[in-house]
Amino acid sequence: MILLTRKAEFSSAHFYWVDAWTEEENQRVFGKCANRNGHGHNYTLEVTVGGEIDPVSGFVVDLKQLKDILEKEVVSVYDHRHLNYEVPEFATTVPTTENIAIAIWQRLEGKIPNATLHRVRVYEMPDLFADYYGEAK
Amino acid sequence: MKAHLNRRYHLSASHRLHAAEYDEAKNREVFGKCNNPFGHGHNYIVQVTMSGQVDPVTGMVCNLGDLDAFAREHLIERFDHQNLNTLTPFDTIVPSTENFAIEIYRIFQPFPHAHLENVHVEETGNNSFDYAGQ
């Protein structure tokens, strides 16, 4: 098996807030991320898939096809959107980097022909990123 | 669901690679320009990988504020803008980036809110070292 990684970028707004908590509690746990007017990031997504190399094409997956899947399943839904208000999985789940990685995994699982998802890595900033390897790991 | 959180910290420090067990010639042979008696320095990047179940309410492996405060107190304040050779344990062992990564692993291992998976230290843009424990 060989691993292949494709990057994509999206820019989104979000804030961290738990409705069941008081304003003070949200401020204490989430700090400036709890500003309800929201803030935003340029996210970088790295999707790593594993598979066998096709002996004829030399590909694990067709990169153009993988790019199109990332565009359709993730970028077109997240890019230039407010995650809390416009992306259904974050209507009641806090859009932390960890949860974004898990949500992207769930969006992509089973959608990539001839390859299995190995890792979803989401950079909120160059110095902060989360990895998800699926339920099994 | 278990996820990994990666956080990078920046610190600048000087060091000199020199082993008391070797004579001067052997030190120069083994460590080359890193053996310069006056030392030299790097902008280090320390990347820690923490794992744990994502809290169903907060959506977090651990609170980044807690991790940053821990790093500030135990890593940055201890090593930033210092001469590594003057500080424990590098007063007795060579402050190679391998040994630095191992010491940083020891520092983060007791962090109470998540499990330490890996320490990655970049000495320069071209050199990096990983330590994931024994």
Give a quick summary of the entry:
By secondary structure, chain A is of the alpha+beta class.
Jot down its keywords.
heterodimer, A: 137 residues, alpha+beta, Tetrahydropterin Synthase, Chain A, 5-stranded mixed β-sheet, 31% strand, B: 134 residues, 5 strands, elongated
Walk me through the structure:
The complex is a heterodimer of chains A (137) and B (134). The relative contact order of chain A is 0.21. Chain A is built from 4 helices and 5 strands; from the N terminus they run βαβαβααββ. By secondary structure, chain A is α+β, with helices and mostly antiparallel strands. In chain A, strand 4 (116-125) and strand 5 (128-132) form a beta hairpin. The mean pLDDT of chain A is 95. Chain A has a single domain, classed as 6-pyruvoyl tetrahydropterin synthase/QueD (Tetrahydropterin Synthase, Chain A, 2-Layer Sandwich). Chain B has helices spanning 24-31, 64-79, 97-108; strands at 2-15, 40-53, 82-83, 115-124, 127-131. The radius of gyration of chain B is 17 Å and the shape is elongated. Chain B has a single domain, classed as 2-Layer Sandwich (Tetrahydropterin Synthase, Chain A), CATH 3.30.479.10. Chain B has 3 helices and 5 strands. In chain B, a hairpin with a 2-residue loop joins strand 4 and strand 5 (127-131). Chain B starts with a strand and ends with a strand. Helices cover 27% and strands 34% of the residues of chain B. Chain B is of the alpha+beta class and 134 residues long. The mean pLDDT of chain B is 96. The A-B interface holds A 16, 18, 20, 29-31, 93-99, 101-102, 126-133, 135, 137 and B 1-9, 49, 54, 57-61, 63-65.
